[in-house]
């Protein structure tokens, strides 16, 4: 669907990394756990003691933990930093993010070099029965029961503006991202937001809807 989550990098407090014990945080989804574990093992191979603080919740919880010194670093996305954390209205590049974060004595690593985006997903059988291929097809189904992550509901580049662009009148409710796949599989909801790299997409036989109005390309222009 949308290019909200862009290139992943490490967000860290450079004032804390002189310590021999580094506290590595992670958000509560599989990619966050995996990336944070990779960071932890890399630090350990270079002689650091590592304290793992995983499953911290969503973006703002992790960021507050970083600001408050409860963790020293965690993997984050450029789009999430600019939109959800720094509340920037315009599209920004890596250097602009770095300058903005340095003001709070934070820094970012180089980019990991792969892309992870938000997307809308439905079960393949739902897509077939309702002829859902594009996000615009949702307009034909106002009865569709939609559950979205709390963060996606609140983001400027999330449901609030996407629903306006697509003319969608559904009233989604909020749920934890980690519960959404089971809710889809059990039929409690029919559509949710996902991360495009999630392994659960093939596992739960999901279909990603096309962003046919190019919302992801236009929202930050």
Concise structural overview:
With 221 residues, this protein is an alpha/beta fold.
Summarize the helices and strands and which ones pair or pack.
Blueprint: E1 8-12, E2 21-25, H1 30-45, E3 49-53, H2 59-67, E4 73-77, H3 78-85, H4 94-102, E5 107-108, E6 118-123, H5 124-130, E7 147-149, H6 150-154, H7 159-166, E8 173-175, H8 177-186, E9 192-195, H9 200-203, E10 206-208, H10 215-218
Parallel strand pairs: 2-3, 7-8
Antiparallel strand pairs: 1-4, 1-5, 6-9, 6-10
Give unreliable regions as ranges: 1-8
Question: What amount of the residues lies in strands?
Answer: 15-25%
> What's the β-strand tally?
10
CATH architecture of the largest domain: 3-Layer(aba) Sandwich
> Rough shape?
globular
Q: Look at the structure and name the CATH superfamily of the largest domain.
A: Periplasmic binding protein-like II
Number of helical segments with 4 or more residues: 10
CATH C-level name of the largest domain: Alpha Beta
